[in-house]
Structure formats: structure tokens, C-alpha cells
Amino acid sequence: MTMDTADPLLGDADDTRRQLDALFRRQAPALVRFLRRRTSQDEAQDLAQEAFLRLTRAAEGQSLQKPEAYLARIARNLLRDRAKSVSGFRERTHAVLDPELHAANDGDPHLALEARQLLERHEAAILKLKPKPREVYLRHRIEGQTYAEIAKAMGLGLNSIERYMITAIATIDRHLGRP
């Protein structure tokens, strides 16, 4: 990190670097644990690194009153962005899981078997979800409800619905062996 100017709150550039380094040493293990509960180990490490990089960039241009809170917000935003990205990618590349449709269209029994097995694994992963993440996931993915509609129907905030979707997607991905 290169900083030529002094920050009035954090002191000079060297002081800012020392404070960010100390913050990293204090917060990195907990941040990685937090992210690991929602992603894979490798992805948790990458997201933690990205969170600290963004915090460092933010510290270059302004003073940070509560860097720990800012870091936590960055991490939650990275998880939300990841969930949206993964969800959007899966929806764009979604394969139809109807074994009968595959068998009828291609006449390939192996394709039908693979589709049936994938569907069974996906259903098993959904059943492993806790009740609220499962309900949110099913309402969104199966019933086609928007997050706002789900939030209203369940009496929850939009942020809660997003967190439940992140949890559901990460759990299903882990169960299916997806990165």
C-alpha cells in the first residue's frame, strides 16, 4: 500500500499501515471463520483477502472511524455479491432436471439417470437446510417469489432473506461438491 499523505485521524501513512496490519492480525482468523461457514475454505481465504484489500483502499482516501465494522460490512457485501453472481450464473446455465424430458428428447438412458441422480442429490441438499433457509430457497427458486415478496410473507426484513439465500446456496453447493 502506498500512501504519500497523512490521515488526520489515523496519523501518517506508516501509522495507517501499522494499524491496518494490526487489524489484519486481530480480525483475519475470525473473518475467515465467518466466511468459511458460508463458503469453502479456499473461497473464504480469497474473500477475506479481498475484504482487507477493499478496507486498505478505503483507508487511503479517508479516515475510518470503526474499521472493524467497516470490514464486517465489506465481508457481508462480498458474500451477497457472490450469492447473486452464483445464483445468476446458475440460472443462466440451468440444466433441466426432468429425467423424462431428457429421455424423451435424447433417448439416452444415461443422461436420464444422471439427471435423476442430480435431482436426488439436490433434493437431499435442500432437506439438509434449516427450516427458514429452506423455505426462503424454495419460495424463491421453486415458486418464483421475489425477495421482497418472501420478506413480506414471512414477516422478515430483506437483509434476512438475502442471508438465508446465501446460507442455502452455500450449503447446497457444499453438498453437491461445487466450488
Automatic annotation (TrEMBL):
Keyword Transcription regulation: yes
Record domain RNA polymerase sigma-70 region: where: 23-84
Keyword field contains Transcription regulation: yes
InterPro entries reported for this sequence: RNA_pol_sigma-70-like, RNA_pol_sigma-70_dom, RNA_pol_sigma70_r2, RNA_pol_sigma70_r4_t2, RNA_pol_sigma_r2, RNA_pol_sigma_r3/r4-like, WH-like_DNA-bd_sf
Lineage top rank: taxon: Bacteria
GO annotation, biological process: DNA-templated transcription initiation
Molecular-function GO term, any one: sigma factor activity
Gene3D superfamilies documented for this protein: 1.10.1740.10, Winged helix-like DNA-binding domain superfamily/Winged helix DNA-binding domain
Family label: Belongs to the sigma-70 factor family. ECF subfamily.
Name of this chain's protein: RNA polymerase sigma factor
Organism: Caulobacter endophyticus
Lineage: Bacteria, Pseudomonadati, Pseudomonadota, Alphaproteobacteria, Caulobacterales
